[in-house]
Write a structure and sequence with these properties.
By secondary structure, this protein is of the alpha/beta class. It has 2 domains: 230 residues, TIM Barrel; 55 residues, Alpha-Beta Plaits. It is 33% helix and 23% strand.
Length: 300
């Protein structure tokens, strides 16, 4: 098996929300866009990150000895100087309370496949498989492709969540290796899309059209953030978009949650503005708008 390596920040076993059946999700580091509500902010940077949880810190001083230029105790508070951190992660190894953790591990195709194959019998029994997520798997295209090829050889079903911002030729090469594309549609209005994500949505719609024309199975995954894109016209756009492309199986709405805010704090990333989490009745109303406009809402 090829010795190609990639940077992964998580492998989640026994997932039932990212494709059919029992699945294992692989989270790839690196993303070409920056959504202001991102629930996986640790996946944006293509590099490994140091995370610090103050609640787990026991004040033992092991990290102060290991990296005094990075870790200091000031007035009884553990201060982390990230600007001085060279991400050697020796402090992580020294921390007995796991208050410090490395987010992003380099893995070979063989190492990752050994982990994924542990659940082969569950994939077979449930019609599940492996889902590549992130971050954005296409940011590590050669590694992602090698993993999908290995899954094909092992008879494992595959899915890939993607923001759609990647070379069309790369999607062309992924077509025979991916059973279902979970394609994110974050905003219908181009100006709003760029404001919320930093990227134009034209390339996303272009790649959606390409995948559909080539016969791909596609689910539109749509994060909905109250006050930003929970507009009637946006839901109607999603319904129309799904009708325009024969490859689209349906629409999966993903109501906003605040998980990303605490993650960003632990990694010293730019603090997110917490939006309101929607009430259950609001989500039911969103689904109804889509269905009334002729769209199909997907649930697992």
């Amino acid at each position: 098996m090829e010795k190609r390596t990639g940077l992964v920040f998580g492998v989640q076993h026994f997932s039932i929300h990212d494709g059919n059946g029992v699945r294992t999700n692989v989270f790839f580091k690196g993303c070409p866009i920056h959504c202001i509500w991102c629930h996986n902010p640790e996946g944006i940077s293509p590099k490994a990150l140091l995370t610090f949880s103050a609640a787990k810190c026991v004040g033992c001083g092991a990290c102060f000895t290991m990296c005094p230029q990075v870790h200091q105790m000031v007035d009884g508070t553990h201060i982390l100087n990230r600007d001085a951190c060279k991400t050697c992660f020796q402090c992580v190894e020294a921390c007995p309370g796991q208050a410090l953790e490395q987010v992003g591990t380099e893995m070979t195709v063989q190492e990752l496949m050994e982990d994924l194959l542990r659940d082969l019998r569950y994939y077979k029994a449930s019609g599940g498989g492996v889902t590549l997520s992130g971050g954005e798997p296409m940011m590590q295209f050669p590694f992602a492709k090698a993993i999908l090829e290995a899954c094909r050889e092992a008879g494992i079903g595959t899915a890939m969540e993607t923001c759609g911002v990647a070379l069309t030729d790369h999607y062309r090469q992924m077509l025979p290796l991916v059973d279902t594309f979970l394609l994110d549609i974050k905003e219908s209005d181009p100006i709003r899309h760029k404001e919320f994500t930093g990227a134009d949505n034209a390339i996303i719609l272009k790649n959606l059209a390409f995948l559909s024309e080539e016969g791909a199975r596609i689910i539109l995954r749509c994060p909905i953030i109250p006050g930003l894109n929970d507009r009637k016209e946006h839901f109607e756009f999603l319904a129309k978009l799904s009708q325009q492309h024969a490859g689209v199986l349906g629409i999966e709405l993903m109501p906003y949650h605040k998980m990303g805010t605490s993650k960003a704090d632990r990694m010293g990333l730019e603090r997110q503005d917490p939006f309101d989490e929607p009430e259950k009745d609001a989500v039911v109303g969103w689904n109804r708008i889509i269905e009334d406009a002729g769209g199909t809402v997907m649930t697992y």
